[in-house]
């Protein structure tokens, strides 16, 4: 039976609100809203994410939202990252290609609050740090694929700050995955989903089990789960199948004419090369250099036996054309990476005494992301220089793979070739590699043992904990590339004295350059490379990496003294952490066998940190001790001392206030200083040079009238081209390096980095009116100011800073060079403490839960309805990479102005129904976009609807749902402003015993 017919599903047992004493709720809600919806409230103190102090109240001075674990099954999510993507304050993380030619990626997903970067959102599991799962020595981030859905209790989201309590990286906020610690029974769970286009299947299987024993003193719970999704290609969705680009618009007469400087190009192809092989008389991307017969450009036939006419399509400069026989832009990158994940987890608890508990956690995860077009393949084209190792191939009439027919045609078409001069072949070798797929596989192990307890002293209660953990991530990114020198040898074929096809190096007069293993390659046509030829030139490339984290955490807290309003509480903590990363490129990478021949060194790095923190919580008014308009007044503070062996010392702090003016009206505020230490990658990444794309050249016709300072950019580009007349005309100039890997990019670390620092302010109000039980309204303002930002200076950043500045900074402009056509030839990429970030915004939530019969004042059971609205207003997001070039990305498709989501749940007996709507407002790709710069300056709003239902009968439940009910595409022309996957269905079965 096929997987498509195995329509099974899963639900997650338990709900975050069980802990809070409440019923289920909407996708994300404030902690106070979760408390308000409860029928009863827990009386035991609990620890709320954002503090280590135990308290009865679930509200804190800083905004905290809760994602109910039950939401994952209701919405058909197979991993927690899909639920986090629904939070309006989070920038969605998906393995989708942007459409610029860059790859779809590894399939890993990392939370990113407020668009400040995934490295500035800290991820925890049960309030403790988790080993990073990023490839190489990247940001300290945790892939959401690692989190066990079957054991998930809830997800707490602290929005903004948290470093004083948890340490480095908590700048945008904290994601805390809270796991069940007392699971009993057996739950089996399976789900299958498919898109309305009968592709992108998603399958999930899960089993969770647990039992209490020794009269309830011990509990052991386990979980095994697996899920898989398949990749998608550019042709699989209408939007990506458009193969849309923008190119210079000849109709544009200048600024102010209302005509865009660029126009749309659909069905984009690279006209200077294809997989059959395009023939040039001179190795440069000029149409006049195409070898012609009867006036028609020539290419090799698919079988390489003859020449056939080549259709350039409607050429729109270098390197693009609309239509034609050139390399299809759709095939440059896949649309969506496929992901397969397997998790196995074991949680245990044993009560040594009534007041001391021993806990343990064992977690294992294997994640495999497959990007079918993770490499652009092996190309030898006129778009590349010879120095890059990817330039066009010179061939002569002595090439043994030229058939008599092809030889005669070439002789007739080009007199120089007939006389023994070379021609040049520009092509993409679709068959020189076993596959273009890049695979990213990670194995993560984490073990933790902890002692927790409490004791009484001096008529006060104190609680303590001691934990030690070790986490190890072993990963590998692997694919294929061509061995540059071998390919150069193999494509230069001739015949030996016996008339056999051999590599020319083995037939010349010199013996010093011989290679007995060399297998000559048939470069003409598509699919003409044999397994023997491929085995000679193809070589595995990639890297293996290992991240290790050792963490020891000790805490103690309790009551300090009693104030008229209640007990003042404290928490002290000491944390020792050691992080180590190793980066080991494959042999081919270390030897520099591919590309330009630059070796990539193996490297490693480590640091340790000793950190002390203290928190206090003091009730000034409350209980029986109140004043008019002061039912409750509570202040808290936190301080942390950090001593990092590389980044040095840092002191961070936080302070907060909660003030209940009258019953149901709570005002809260917080102020904190937070930090992020440089990562091992930013410090120690080895210097390596590879072919890559620059994304944007400021002088390109698509960009020249945009940027932070369009007039300065235009003037600087005009001056550059005037000083270098060989570059040709600036009007209509296009750099193929924007979309094609033909720029030699050198990357490396910076050992002189220091901590980046941010100051965060939040203030808000929580309303729970007595006249509407179950209604909670929350509004919070968030402001973040970051300095000494750890800024990744990419080639795009260096270029933009150089051409948008007056005068142009020589040190920045010296980070790249141009070739003879004015295209970027080389560029650098590294990290500096130069950036600043300013963020301002608000989060509004409304939650209302009630019995439907209450509307009619009836005692009948008509079910319970829960309504939720979450809105995030991104008022300002201003980033400077260099410290003086400011770029606002608020009110853009990356950080929309207003993002909202509405949720509704209805439950009656065994029936549960849910509906959600996600809304993205009208926006722009860039704030400076106008009709003068782009044909689509305004991106339309995007609205998506989801429906699902569940019916439970005894120990079983079935559920089904539709994601993106109306099959809403992303707003034109984007791929990511909305849902590129389109309408999806899911159905499944859940069994609990």
Architecture overview:
This protein has 993 residues and is mainly beta. 10% of the residues lie in helices and 44% in strands. It contains 15 helices and 49 strands. It has a 22-stranded antiparallel β-barrel. It has a six-stranded mixed sheet with strand order 1-4-7-8-5-6. The longest helix has 14 residues. The protein is elongated and about 105 Å long. The protein starts with 15 loop residues before the first helix and ends with a strand. The N terminus is likely disordered.
Please provide the count of β strands: 49
Radius of gyration: 31 Å
Major sheet characteristics = 22 strands, antiparallel, barrel
Percentage beta strand: 35-45%
Helix content: under 10%
Rounded mean pLDDT is 90
End-to-end Cα distance, whole Å, is 27 Å
Identify the overall geometry.
elongated
Structure described in brief:
The chain is mainly beta.
Question: What features would you highlight for this structure?
Answer:
993 residues, six-stranded mixed sheet, 44% strand, disordered N terminus, 22-stranded antiparallel barrel, mainly beta
């Amino acid at each position: 039976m096929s997987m498509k017919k195995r329509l099974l599903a899963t639900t997650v047992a338990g709900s975050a609100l069980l802990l809070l004493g409440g019923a289920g709720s909407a996708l994300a809600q404030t902690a106070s809203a979760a408390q308000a919806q409860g029928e009863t409230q827990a009386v035991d103190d609990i620890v709320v994410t954002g503090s280590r102090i135990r308290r009865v109240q679930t509200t804190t001075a800083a905004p905290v939202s809760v994602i109910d674990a039950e939401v994952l099954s209701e919405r058909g999510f197979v991993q927690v990252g899909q639920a986090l993507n629904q939070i309006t304050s989070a920038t969605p993380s998906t393995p989708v290609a942007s459409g610029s030619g860059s790859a779809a990626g590894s399939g890993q997903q990392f939370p990113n609050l407020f668009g400040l970067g995934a490295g500035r959102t800290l991820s925890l599991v049960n309030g403790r740090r988790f080993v990073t799962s990023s490839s190489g020595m990247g940001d300290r981030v945790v892939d959401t694929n690692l989190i066990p859905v079957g054991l998930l209790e809830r997800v707490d989201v602290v929005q903004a700050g948290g470093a004083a309590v948890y340490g480095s990286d908590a700048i945008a906020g904290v994601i805390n995955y809270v796991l069940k610690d007392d699971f009993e029974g057996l739950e089996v769970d399976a789900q299958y989903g498919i898109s309305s286009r009968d592709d992108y299947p998603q399958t999930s299987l899960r089993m969770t089990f647990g039992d209490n024993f020794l009269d309830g003193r011990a509990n052991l719970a386990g979980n095994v789960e697996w899920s898989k999704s398949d990749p998608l290609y550019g042709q699989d969705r209408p939007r990506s199948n458009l193969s849309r680009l923008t190119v210079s618009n000849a109709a544009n007469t200048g600024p102010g004419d209302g005509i865009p400087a660029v126009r749309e190009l659909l069905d984009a192809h690279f006209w200077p090369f294809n997989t059959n092989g395009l023939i040039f008389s001179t190795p440069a991307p000029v149409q006049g250099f195409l070898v012609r017969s009867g006036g028609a450009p020539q290419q090799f036939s698919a079988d390489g036996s003859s020449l056939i006419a080549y259709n350039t399509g409607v050429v729109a400069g270098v390197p693009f054309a609309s239509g034609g026989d050139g390399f299809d832009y759709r095939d440059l990158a896949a649309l969506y990476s496929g992901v397969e994940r397997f998790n196995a987890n074991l949680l245990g608890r044993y009560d040594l005494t009534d007041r001391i508990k021993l806990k343990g956690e064992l977690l294992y995860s294997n994640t495999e992301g497959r990007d079918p077009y993770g490499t652009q393949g092996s190309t030898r084209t006129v778009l590349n220089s010879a120095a890059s190792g990817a330039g066009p191939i010179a061939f002569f009439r002595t090439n043994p793979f030229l058939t008599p027919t092809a030889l005669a045609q070439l002789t007739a078409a080009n007199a120089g070739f007939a006389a023994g001069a070379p021609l040049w072949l520009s092509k993409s070798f679709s068959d020189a590699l076993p596959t273009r797929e890049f695979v990213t596989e990670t194995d993560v192990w984490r073990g933790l043992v902890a002692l927790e307890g409490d004791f009484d002293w001096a008529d006060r209660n104190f609680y303590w904990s001691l934990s030690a953990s070790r986490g190890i991530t072993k990963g590998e990114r692997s694919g294929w590339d061509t061995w540059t020198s071998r390919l150069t040898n193999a494509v230069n074929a001739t015949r030996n004295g016996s008339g056999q096809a051999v590599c020319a190096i083995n037939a010349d007069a010199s013996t010093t350059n011989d290679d007995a293993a060399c297998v000559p390659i048939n470069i003409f046509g598509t699919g003409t490379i044999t397994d023997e030829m491929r085995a000679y030139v193809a070589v595995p490339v990639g890297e293996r990496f290992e991240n290790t984290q050792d963490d020891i955490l000790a805490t103690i807290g309790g009551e300090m003294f009693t104030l008229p309003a209640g007990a003042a509480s404290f928490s002290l903590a000491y944390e020792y952490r050691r992080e180590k990363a190793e980066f080991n490129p494959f042999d081919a990478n270390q030897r520099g066998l591919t590309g330009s021949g630059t070796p990539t060194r193996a490297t490693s790095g480590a640091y340790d940190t000793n950190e002390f923190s203290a928190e206090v919580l003091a009730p000034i008014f409350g209980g029986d001790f109140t004043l008019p308009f002061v039912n409750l007044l509570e202040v808290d503070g936190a301080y942390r001392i950090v001593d990092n062996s590389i980044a040095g010392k840092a002191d961070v702090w936080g302070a907060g206030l909660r003030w209940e003016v009258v019953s149901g009206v709570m005002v809260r505020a917080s102020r904190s200083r937070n930090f992020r230490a440089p990562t091992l990658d930013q410090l120690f990444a080895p210097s390596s040079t590879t072919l890559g794309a620059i994304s944007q050249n400021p002088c390109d016709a698509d960009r020249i009238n945009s940027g932070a300072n369009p007039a300065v950019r235009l003037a600087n580009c005009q001056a550059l081209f005037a000083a270098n007349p060989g570059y040709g005309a600036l009007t209509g100039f296009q750099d193929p390096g924007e979309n094609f890997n033909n720029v030699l990019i050198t990357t490396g670390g910076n050992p002189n980095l220091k901590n980046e620092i941010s100051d965060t302010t939040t203030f808000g109000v929580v309303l729970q009116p007595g006249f509407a039980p179950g209604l909670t309204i929350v509004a919070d303002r968030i402001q973040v100011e970051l300095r000494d930002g750890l800024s990744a200076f990419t080639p795009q950043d260096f270029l933009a800073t150089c051409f948008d500045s007056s005068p142009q900074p020589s040190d920045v402009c010296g980070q790249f060079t141009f070739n003879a056509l004015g295209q970027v030839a080389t560029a650098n990429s590294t990290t500096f403490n130069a950036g600043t970030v300013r963020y301002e915004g608000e989060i509004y939530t409304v939650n209302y839960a009630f019995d439907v019969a209450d509307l009619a004042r009836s005692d009948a059971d008509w079910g319970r309805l829960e309504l939720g609205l979450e809105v995030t207003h991104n008022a300002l997001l201003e980033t400077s990479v260099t410290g003086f070039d400011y770029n606002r990305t608020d009110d853009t498709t990356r950080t929309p102005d207003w993002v909202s989501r509405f949720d509704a749940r209805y439950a009656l007996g065994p029936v549960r129904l849910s509906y959600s709507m996600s809304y993205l407002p009208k926006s722009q790709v860039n704030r400076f976009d106008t009709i003068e710069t782009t044909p689509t300056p305004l991106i339309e709003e995007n609205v998506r609807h989801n429906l699902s239902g569940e019916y439970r009968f005894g120990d079983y439940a079935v559920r089904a749902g539709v994601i993106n009910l109306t099959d809403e595409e992303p707003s034109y022309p984007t791929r990511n402003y909305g849902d590129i996957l389109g309408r999806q269905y899911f159905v499944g079965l859940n069994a609990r015993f």
